[in-house]
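Repro:
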Amino acid sequence: MNCYIFYRSIALSTQLRDYNSITRSAVGALLLSASRSTFEGVSSEIEFFLKSPNHTLSSRLAPNATHHSLPVVEYIFVFRLARCLLKIICFKGRGRTARAWKSKMSTNALIGGVIPSTDVVKRAARIGAEVKNIKLSGDLPDQTIAAINSLLLEHKVIFFRNQGHLNDAEHERFAARLGKLVPHPMLGPTKGMASLLELDSTRGGGRADVWHADGTFADAYPKILVLRAVVIPAFGGDTVWSNTAAAYLDLPPPLQGLAEDLWAVHSNVFDYAGIARVREVDKKHFDEVFTRTVFETEHPVVRVHPETGERALVLGALVKHFIGIRKYDGQQLFDLLQSYITAPENTVRWNWLEGDIALWDNRATQHYAVNDYGDQHRVVRRATIEGDVPLSVDGRSSVTRLKVTD
């Protein structure tokens, strides 16, 4: 189809001073143009008539129409419109159709101005995305770090393959770009590191096969965790994350209201021995290291996320009891609310490869390290970013009621 049909429509519409029709005709010409040459020709012709007041644009583009000389302002309008179209095609055309260019632009939208949307692949509908073609380091530009944080807030957990270039020091340097590094309050960091904690399956405490958010026994528990796969078994050893903000939204309104009024005591002294797969080495680590300092902290069951404003459930294995509710009733209530968090629709499962990095928003997730790899060796290392004290929906803050060191 010849684009000059649309330009004749522009001329006729200009005579009637119908600027909506002018715009529609111009867009039609843009979408049907196969190259920039048409626009160059049309723009040149408009420019010729702008300089030749004895002719009208309509006499050349619509020769059979009834002619009326146009005010200069309307010549200028059409001229500028054509020149704008020309610039668009010259910028991204180069022989492509305008339609192909539009399609390419839509698929190559940049997140934060730096990460192509095509490099972000969702791993589940409600949580989790893999980010490709980024080499993580402590030297990434601020704009890239901001884009990564934006993706983290949106997807709750994000994954990066092929980060084997990271050693312990560079792992921490990257993590420090996301916030202040803090050590585990009882376990401390790996020697020479500020925050890095090694979880080795052969040692006590190396298998976190319970649903939990990290560190909720403290008031300002971590906001972000950065986990790196060092040694991965030939099979098994996946980690599952759940979206606790989506879980809250799934609650029926009466249960949402109930949850918003509830407060729970979280402690590092929980029924660890009740875990089905607990080993003697794990029990020893729990008694002698993990509970050397005893914490008890009151958290709202529903917290307001400080960056997104979302409401998220704060539960998991570290919940000791609900305030003001008898133990038996509280357990039934806990099981009901926790079931919304662990519903498969709210989860994503990551199959680790050595060199992978996972970042998660600990304020809006729980996770579970699947203990299905037998005696195989599994080692991951984790950097921890300092968090904030949760706020309830009515603005009250979490508070630590007990911190006792043996």
